[in-house]
Structure formats: C-alpha cells, structure tokens
Amino acid sequence: MSSKxxxxxxxFLAVNASGRQFEIHQFQDMILTQTRxxxxxxxxxxxxxxxxxxxxxxISKGNYEIAESGEQLSxxxxxxx
Length: 81
Prior knowledge:
With 81 residues, this protein is an all-beta fold. It has no helices and six strands. A hairpin with a 2-residue loop joins β2 and β3. The termini are far apart.
C-alpha cells in the first residue's frame, strides 16, 4: 500500500526586475510504500511556490517565472535550485 507525504525542502529569496523580494518555497512529494522491512520513501514531484500559494516555474538555476503572471524572478542564493 502506498501513500504520499509532502515535505518542505527549502526556502530562498528571489527578486523581480524592480528589486521587490519574494520568498520561494520548494516542496517535494514523497511516495511512502510499506514493505516487510519498513517504509520505503521515494521522491516524487517537486514544485516551487510563493508565500501566497502561487506556483513558480524554474527557467534555469537562479531564474524563475511566476506561472500566473509571467513575472521574471532571479536569485543568487547558492542553495536555490
């Protein structure tokens, strides 16, 4: 039997062209499968969201786009995907 768990991976700051800051959160779905030896955790879908729940698309490392508006964001955080 399988179930799903959503975990928060990291948060990082990004800015738009006018310098406004946005906090982006990365979430990862984990597929949990019960086996005789215990629970197996397999990474599933990962996504990015703003504080207000809007989804963010990753264009390349450090470059993002708010899906709803197309607004471009960038981050120089070394831990940002």
